[in-house]
Amino acid sequence: MNPLRILICNDDGILALGIRSLAKTAAKRGHEVTVVCPDQERSATGHGLTLQKPIRAKRVDELFANGVTAWGCSGTPADCIKLALFELLPEKPDLILSGINHGPNLGTDVFCSGTVAAAMEGTLEGYPALATSVTSFQCKDFHFAAKLTIDLAEKAIANEWPTNLLLNLNIPSCEPIDMGPLKWTRLSIRHYEEQFCRRIDPRGDTYFWLAGEAVKDLEASGHGPRKWPSDVAQIETCSPSLTPIQPDLFWRGDLSELPKLNLDNQLVR
Q: Where are the strands (E) in the chain, listed by range?
């Protein structure tokens, strides 16, 4: 295929191995790669934007492979995409990639994910966007994940990527030879237990550390073809998961299930 202009972001920061591997792999394929990502880790920032202080950006090409243009940004992942699209890029990209994230982004955790938020910001602006995560925080080799990401993105571009479609790819933490086949999946509903750990600091004051453990509910999932596995269930089989997501959060349940509020007869004050 013809070379693509690819914008890459993440939430793990400019020094993360995942984003450098992804940028290097894309550049080796002959694509024109620009990285605009946070200058330090900003995981779990969701779709937050910086409104009360300035955003600074600095060129850091030396941290990446030859031919990759890179910027470290003081803002959130969503800030980075906005800044890239409207200020830093000389031409609009053909594709936005986010990741490769260190750790999973499964189910409703996508609402907290800065990685997914960066891709979603691209989707909201009308660009094809794909977020990639490896489901291990200890992963040191992102070669396979980077190759799979670029392969999928190239195929999706060649097959006319639909408007408002974000692809969320999760890759299990096992050797490629041991992986099952990649499948389309539904978005799980993720629940956590023991959300906070209460501790006492050296001065005797109480503080809290967010430390919830995900409850493994392999069947709980949102809307989608019922024959599709949930993304959590797919990863549990040591197989990559690909979930289509869109910005529209409108209720898709039966309208008869909505609360009986008699809104037409209520006086709005």
A: 5-9, 32-38, 57-59, 69-73, 95-102, 129-134, 166-171, 183-184, 191-193, 196-200, 206-210, 213-215, 241-245
Residues 6+ apart with CB under 8 A from 200: 206, 207
For residue 21 the two structure tokens come to 């591997």
| pLDDT attached to residue 256 | 86
Q: What is the mean pLDDT of the chain?
A: 91
Q: Is 168 exposed, middle or buried (0-12, 13-18, 19+ CB in 10 A)?
A: buried
Q: What pLDDT shows up at residue 55?
A: 96
Q: How many CA atoms lie within 13 A of 175 on its CB side?
A: 2
- Calculate mean pLDDT across residues 183-194: 84
Give the C-alpha separation, 230 to 237, whole Å: 11
More confident: 43 or 82? 82
Is the CA virtual torsion 241, 244, 249, 251 positive or negative?
negative
Residue 13 structure tokens: 């920061």
203: which 2 tokens? 């001065």
In angstroms, rounded to a whole number, what is the distance separating the alpha carbons of residues 111 and 217? 18
pTM of the model: 0.92
Alpha carbon distances (Å) from 250 to 28, 59, 202, 253, 255: 40, 40, 47, 9, 12
Q: What is the mean pLDDT of residues 44-48?
A: 90
* H/E element, 147: helix 143-158
